[in-house]
Design brief:
The chain is mostly beta strands and 973 residues long. It has two domains: 82 residues, Immunoglobulin-like, CATH 2.60.40.1120; 728 residues, TonB-dependent receptor, beta-barrel domain (Maltoporin, Chain A), CATH 2.40.170. It has eleven helices and 50 strands. The protein has a 22-stranded antiparallel β-barrel. Pfam families: CarboxypepD_reg, Plug, TonB_dep_Rec_b-barrel.
Length: 973
């Protein structure tokens, strides 16, 4: 009996094992893999997001267009592709247990992706179609195809609704950035910038303590905190305007938000890329009144840059790194060089199946040589030449009438004076971001971000006795008037943020709910060390005859919580509601949490059956309407709410006096924005049109209000003003040619701007930049645009004599009423690409102090009436300040920013040692047309205090941006 029983047990074991293995095989997940190529030309498409939304699974295609999704349960699934610049595609696939399903995609390019996944609008990834506002996205391809070497150069034409102007050609100098007009008169116009979720230093203008190489309004040569954010390793950039940035950014969002996302790598074969760029840069001769200026002061300087990058990974860990070294000889003789060293790395890791960690680290070091310009006084070469002041050191100021011998002598003088200058700026920057994403359930995820930005700069200027003697600022034999100025600025920003998102779907209804909180802290410490009576050859302050020091410190803490919900019905009706509450260390003691609401809608009209029946898809394939109302803020300057005592040195002792009166009711400025817009896709996806109309009103604007003289106290920031900005934003992207082996696309944008200070709250007129009321300044005055030019205006009699002169008159508006961009891309086969982009503006005015000084110093002005010149023929014209209005000019322009041609050698042309070789030629700033007699971007702009509004307005001895020609070779392994 035992043997049969044992046989029965054995058979039962075999049957159980077979049953278990069959059940295990049935539960074993499968794999979906395939290749993604372009329908136009068949080239592989990298970085396509391939996902199974219902399961929360996905991956990115690699450089060969291949992808692989593991862990897919057996059954039928809908797989979807998405990538900016290509149409979406879906396929249904049945996955067998433990098997591999092959699914290939053939994508068609389209003028512009209307429905990419974005982060800036919601805190976590969400389809843009669900949002009530437009979010601009700059893709990896747009960044890589641009010949821009600075972030603000890239933004000039890549963000169609934002105007970025490089106000000086000195290396690393700051730019003026504005989107929907200046919403404040006391805060910067630059959008807030985030890198991998971390708020970064945004002082793109005047520092409180800094090297005075441009005079009192020295923004033209301030070091930009945007310029030293490297382009290497950036994956994409998102921009959201102020009104729509309400919920996530609250008290810091009135100027909009720029989000930068860096590369973290993707699963697949490791890739390595090396790029070498070499070229020359030189002056734009048209920018000068005297053609001789370009020959006397500028040169064709060598520039070279080398980049190395790599990426790779697997299903659990991905990585990416990038680095560059740049060396510029400079286009200004002797002292315009710069060097830059950048490195950035990023990675992602699946710590568990549900928890992902991503991080990025970056370090950069920049060295810039500087020269005196603008209103610095003394030896300021552009003022001496273009302003006609060169006679003060013994030369003929009419350069066009100078002999060859005079010009040769002048060139020797300038070369030696430039050699003796010693001004330089060093900037080092470290950025770090740590992010955690937890997929708690298929419909619930949480994220957290912790990071910092540390930026340290040192500006140093040494004026030797030799320099002072040579330039005529000191007599022969002087040995005790040398000086050393050294300024340090250390910025440390800390960001902490956490949030969660829940997705719910039932039938036709879908809900996306987001909640979160954010805290950031900024520390800005500045110090000054000045040494006087310094011997020549000294490099340090120690040992000087006299030393003095100063310091400056700002600290700001902002914290807020937010909640927003997005409803969707039938995937075509969407409602977006959000609210944020903020606290801030700069708010007054009587001010509690400040609330910022948002309400918006989006309507996918193009998906309606009646629309599709009435309009052929080949004519209009997509039409979406949207609108929103939101309130965004600008917090006050740090410590502006505090009552202070002012101390000064008097007879070797401290003397106390009234400082800042303080304001317990100090609140943030709040910009209320109503926006309506939409987008349509037409002609089988070949053309996309975006339209926005906005009306923004800043209430509680911070104006400087003087207290009654009887109090003995000075002025104080108060929430008394009102500023309005309104306009339209149009953008068209069209594929105008598409045939075998050839395609061409165009893009163009048009923006209008109407800005006005509608209520000054009783505050008197005050200046935010410029010089003085007797010369010219930009002011805040009720009924005028922010930063309007104000100065003396005269009218003339027919015989050229002055009929009347009036002081403090409106002379112009430095803000354009229209601006936009243009772009062209041509693809020939899979190997040859041509790009060109430009931007333009109309309706703005600038004042030229160069022209006014030339008139003062006896140089005839071709723009002035002959009768007036005949009345004033001396070497010094005493009525020059009565005629300021004659030196204000329209600054309409069209400037071609970049032209580039890139050719990818055929695969295998150099054997199998390389995955691809790309050759490129590019030119930056090659062409320009403008109505003014000077370069309209050589703008000696500035602000009265750190963080103040900078609108530009003055052409005054500032280097114009150079023109460059570059050759590039990029090798991929």
């Amino acid at each position: 009996m035992k043997a049969p029983f044992r046989r029965i047990l054995s058979w039962l074991g075999v049957v159980s094992a077979l049953s278990w293995s069959t059940a295990a095989a049935a539960q074993q997940p499968g794999v979906i893999q395939g290749r993604i190529t372009s329908q136009f030309g068949g080239a592989p498409i990298a970085d396509v997001q391939v996902s199974i939304a219902a399961l929360g699974l996905g991956t990115l295609s690699d450089a060969d267009g291949t992808y692989r999704i593991t862990g897919v349960p057996a059954g039928e699934h809908l797989i979807e592709t998405q990538r900016i610049g290509y149409s979406r595609s879906t396929q249904t696939v049945t996955v067998a247990a433990g098997q591999i399903a092959q699914v290939d995609f053939l994508l068609t390019d389209q003028a512009m992706e209307l429905d990419p996944l974005v982060v800036t609008g919601q805190g976590s990834e969400i389809s843009r179609r669900r949002l009530s506002t437009n979010i601009e996205v700059i893709s990896t391809e747009a960044i890589e195809s641009s010949s821009a070497t600075r972030l603000d150069q890239l933004l000039q034409t890549a963000l169609p609704s934002v105007q970025v102007r490089l106000s000086s050609g000195q290396p690393g100098a700051s730019s003026v950035t504005r989107g929907r007009g200046p919403v404040s008169v006391s805060r910067s116009t630059t959008p807030v910038i985030y890198v991998d979720g971390v708020r970064v230093d945004n002082l793109n203008g005047l520092a409180e303590l800094s090297l005075n190489t441009s005079g009192g309004r020295r923004n033209g040569t301030q070091t930009s905190s945007i310029a030293d954010i490297p382009l290497e390793n950036i994956e994409r950039i998102e921009y959201v305007p102020g009104g729509a940035a309400t919920t996530l950014y609250g008290s810091d969002a009135a100027n909009g938000v720029i989000q930068i996302f860096t590369k973290k790598g993707s699963p697949g074969t490791s890739q390595l890329s090396f790029e070498s760029e070499i070229g020359v840069e030189g002056p734009v001769e048209k920018a000068f009144f005297f053609p001789q200026t370009a020959d006397l002061l500028y040169q064709n300087g060598l520039t070279q840059q080398y980049r190395l990058s790599g990426s790779g990974g697997n299903d659990r860990v991905t990585w990416s790194f990038g680095g560059s070294v740049q060396d510029r000889e400079g286009y200004r003789i002797d002292n315009n060089a710069s060097q830059s060293y950048q490195a950035r790395t990023g990675m992602t890791a699946l710590l568990t199946d549900d928890l992902q960690y991503s991080a990025s680290f970056a370090f950069g070091y920049n060295h810039y040589e500087r020269s005196r310009d603008g209103n610095a006084g003394g030896y300021t070469p552009l003022w001496l030449l273009e302003g006609g002041r060169i006679f003060a050191v013994g030369f003929n100021n009419k350069l066009n009438e100078s002999s060859a011998e005079e010009l040769a002598e002048l060139q020797d003088y300038l070369a030696e004076a430039e050699r003796l200058q010693n001004y330089r700026v060093n900037v080092s920057r470290f950025q770090m971001s740590h992010q955690f994403a937890w997929e708690a359930r298929d419909d619930l995820n949480f994220n957290a971000t912790l990071g910092l930005d540390h930026r340290s700069s040192n500006e140093r200027g040494i004026e030797t006795n030799e320099f002072l003697i040579f330039t005529g600022s000191a007599p022969e034999g002087t040995d005790d008037r040398g000086s050393i100025e050294s300024y340090d600025r250390r910025f440390l920003g800390l960001t902490m943020e956490a949030g969660g998102q829940h997705r719910f779907e039932t039938g036709a209804l879908s809900l996306v709910t987001s909640v979160g909180g954010q805290l950031f802290r900024d520390d800005d410490a500045q110090s000054e060390r000045v040494a006087l009576n310094v011997r020549d050859g000294s490099e340090t302050v120690r040992g000087a005859g006299t030393t003095q020091a100063d310091d400056f410190f700002l600290q700001l803490v902002n914290y807020g919580v937010y909640a927003q919900q997005n409803w969707g019905l039938y995937d075509k009706y969407f409602l977006d509601i959000g609210i944020r509450a903020d606290g801030n260390s700069a708010f007054g003691d009587e001010v509690g949490l400040q609330v910022y609401p948002k309400l918006g809608f989006s309507y996918d009209l193009g998906s309606e059956d009646f629309f599709q029946d009435a309009v052929p898809a080949s004519l209009i394939s997509n039409l979406r309407l949207r609108g929103n109302y939101g309130v965004a803020g600008n917090f006050p300057p740090p410590f502006a709410n505090d009552r202070t005592v002012s101390f000064a040195s008097y007879l070797g002792q401290q003397s106390a006096g009234y400082g800042q009166p303080g304001n317990d009711d100090l609140r943030p400025e709040k910009t209320h924005t109503l926006e309506l817009g939409g987008e349509l896709q037409a002609l089988s996806g070949r053309m996309t049109l975006q339209f926005n109309w906005y009306d923004a009103k800043t209430k509680d604007a911070l104006f400087t209000v003087p207290l009654p003289p009887s109090t003995g106290e000075g002025s104080q920031l108060r929430n008394v003003g009102e500023i309005t900005n309104s306009g339209i934003e149009l953008r068209v992207v069209a594929t105008v040619l598409r045939r075998d082996g050839l395609s061409a696309s165009l893009n163009a944008s048009l923006n209008t701007l109407n800005n006005e200070v509608t209520d000054a709250g009783g505050s008197p007129v005050f200046g935010i930049s410029g010089f003085s009321s007797s010369t010219i300044e930009t002011v805040v005055q009720e009924g005028w645009p922010v930063g309007s030019l104000r100065g003396t205006a005269s009218t003339l009699n027919p015989d050229g004599t002055i009929a009347s002169t009036e002081l403090l008159q409106y002379l112009g508006n430095p803000l354009p009423d229209r601006f936009g961009s243009l772009g062209l891309e041509v693809l020939v086969g899979d190997n040859l690409r041509f790009n060109a982009d430009a931007d333009w503006q109309t309706g703005a005015q600038l004042h030229s102090f160069n022209r006014q000084f030339r008139y003062l110093y006896g140089i005839d002005d071709p723009e002035l009436p002959d009768e007036l010149l005949a009345q004033n023929t001396g070497s010094i014209r005493g009525n020059w300040l009565d005629l300021t209005n004659f030196f204000v000019e329209d600054t309409d322009y069209l400037r071609v920013r970049n032209i580039s041609v890139n050719y990818t050698l055929p695969q295998g042309a150099f054997g199998g040692w390389s995955d691809g070789i790309e050759l490129g030629l590019a030119s930056q700033n090659p062409l320009g047309w403008w109505t003014s007699s000077f370069d309209p971007e050589s703008d000696h702009s500035g602000a009265s205090s750190q963080g103040g509004a900078s609108v530009g307005g003055f052409n005054y001895g500032s280097d114009p941006s150079p023109r460059s020609f570059l050759a590039t070779i990029r090798v991929r392994f």
